[in-house]
Amino acid sequence: MLLMVIIFLLMFTVIVVAHEWGHYITAKKCGVLVHEFAVGMGPILWSKQAGETLYSIRLFPIGGFCRMEEEEGESKNPRAMSSKKPWQKLLIVGAGAIMNFILAWVLASILVGYTGVGTNVVATIEPNSPMAESGIVVGDRIIAIDGNKIKNLSDVREMLTSEPKVYTFSIKHDGEKKDVIVTSRIMGDETSPRFGFTVEKSHFNIWQNIKMGFLYMISIIAMVWESLLGLISGAIGFDQMAGIVGVVDVGSKVWDSSMEAGGVNLAIMSMVQMAALLSANLGVVNLLPLPALDGGRIFFILIEMIRGKAIPPEKEGAVHFIGMILLMLLTVVVLYNDIMRLRG
Fold this sequence. Notes:
This protein is of the alpha+beta class.
């Protein structure tokens, strides 16, 4: 468990620092004065002044922060964030979540590169399966199904319907093209029809990895949104929410099972997958239009853009303060749920 705590502290720090880096680099590009960019929290262990910004590493590896000149309120400094145009503030505030999505994309692409992308070349065929009965053999390349071009395994899956169906496979066999009839069917105790084959995997096509990594990242974001909607609708119980303790517990179990199944490499890739999920999750949650979150600040900026002037800083600050208190209370409740689950 200690190993997992260390891994998740480092993972969480990387994810939060990526988020803060988004704010930092966008603020710099928009001419905002950034006083400090910190990795970690608490007392400073190391720091270096580079120009106008102090770069520091702090004692506790639990995230980081980017401290700008007057992020909220009024300032006479023309380089204060509050003095910038609304569209610039919108970019700066939204850049944190964007960086989390980019990080999730990068991690997903690495994961796809490790696991491989299914091609359209047949690798194995199950005995007595629809594919075996069709006459297609290992090494054949599937180039179309019912006239629709097939480039990879995901294209094949998109063609497969939920009910048994007759398909026309266009394949290349020994350099020659031919059409073959394949009828999908339910095999064994399964509930959905299959063809009964696997395909070769490509691990070193970087553009394919990037493309599939992007699609995987989008699917993670969609899953997070579905979970949030489930919480709002009541389809998912509030007690099913997990905080850092619950995530570490789940991660520990995933690590152990991955070590047993495939060793260190698989365990590391499992952590990469979890990091991608956490990064995308942080990005989505931060965009929610709630006080104290980036989404709440974006909401006030949009109001400013509509009405032509900013909400009085003391009023906006009060709303964010209340939101922070509620967020802290939510954190305590989720932590309690985590502890109770661990106790069984």
